[in-house]
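Comment thread on ticket #2218

A.B. wrote:
> Attaching the input chain for the structure job we discussed in standup.
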Amino acid sequence: MTEAKKTDTQAHLMDLGRGLLEQAVAVQRSALESSRQLVEGEGVARSLREHHEEWLRKSLEALAPLYALEQSAREQVLKAQTRLFELADDTLRGLTLPGMARGGPGSR
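C.D. wrote:
> Ran it. Output below, let me know if you need it in another format.
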């Protein structure tokens, strides 16, 4: 091989090597950027998860008194219904005619 062809071949191989090296560096940079975005994404997801848990805790704390109030209201309604039924029963007993309470007029 002549010296000129040898030099051309070496220059061509050097160009190919440089091109491959540039591609490898670009791939490495892309991989690093993807890794950085992944880490940032995980950080954002973790932050959102923490915020969600905090909002959920605060919501439950805010709703707890309302649930207690609802339970108390249900108990009061049940007591009021029971008392109304007792009053209605007492009223019906009081309205019963005296003769009917003893078996009616022909029971003598």
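A.B. wrote:
> Thanks. Noting for the ticket: The radius of gyration is 45 Å.
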